[in-house]
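From the pipeline queue, job 12 of 40. The input is one protein chain; the requested action is below.

Action: predict structure.
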Amino acid sequence: MSMSSINITSLDDPLTHLASIWTFPFQIPLTANPPDDSSCWRQGYVVAQASISRAKLQGGPLRGATWRSSLSTDGSNVTVGHRMKIPVLPSLPAPGDGPPLPSISDLDHLTQFSVSSLCGEYVQVRKRRRGS
């Protein structure tokens, strides 16, 4: 995930720029536990939310104290929701009102799997899928 800068402005005058924060891109590992009823697939959207139990904004530099260090605010239970359209994915029906999302077991079946060594130098893995 990458974000644009987070800009902090005066509440009274949004044109008064106080600070900008930049973050490095980072990964958010997601679980593959969709709702049992495939409702997201039928709707064609994924709806998710991010929650932070506590966020504290403290003024001043990280090291040392200035008059700005006396400025602080706390936020609790901050939640941001997001709705994202599911893109068309190869080999799957289009999300939305069309055919339902097939179960994982209907997508691919491994019919044969073998491992063999050639001259002891490397391992060759061969697999065949149903229909190939």
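Job complete. Residues 7 and 20 are 4 Å apart (CA to CA).
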